[in-house]
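User: Hi! I'm working on a homework problem where we have to compare a predicted structure to a textbook description. Could you give me the structure for the chain below?
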Amino acid sequence: MPLIPEEPQIHESAQGPRATPASGRIAPTPRPVPGPRPVAPPRPGRPGPRPGPPVQRMPHDVAVAKPAVPGPAAPVTSAPSPVPASAAPQIQLIPASAAGALDAAEEAVDLLLESGRAPGEVLVITTGEQHPWAAHELSFGEAAYWAQHDAGDDVFYADATAASRAVSRPVVVVAVNGGSAAAVAEALPLAHSRAGALLIVCGDPQQINSLLSAGV
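Assistant: Happy to help. Predicted structure tokens:
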């Protein structure tokens, strides 16, 4: 089914609105009521707390009821934890033109890192022009370029033709920043197979939905 475009968001706990008095000013948030304070130890030269009243003892001829001894507790049986029905990654679509797809992908990466994702968990694939980082690193040779990929400690950028060599990562971001329709059609299933938990596609919604409607 076609995906509904949505912006990448970091879900934070929502805060309710503050109460506004009649004057229009925001009422200050009431401070929490402090609990009972512990009894402070007596200072030198000052008497300590007064002793309480004497405890009345029970006469010897009064029978004291003994507490009932509880029986053995019934064994607790835990229900088996449910197994996920599918391990397929979630797919998220970010509407963007071919010229703005790379910027949208960069913004998605920033949001992922701010939400707690480690840089080594993210793979970015471009369908058109290479990402500037990839072009710069490839200028030193493919050996140095793929050595950074194998290290797995930073975001890795690759074009669709080279992404087949990349290993799977929890999050894959695809920037549909050009390329032929056939290249895009090949890049999406490849990205889907490399995404462990989340696949983010930045591009034209109509084009992407037409490719995803038949299933990745």
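For your comparison, note the following. The first helix runs from residue 101 to 114. The radius of gyration is 32 Å. Good luck with the assignment!
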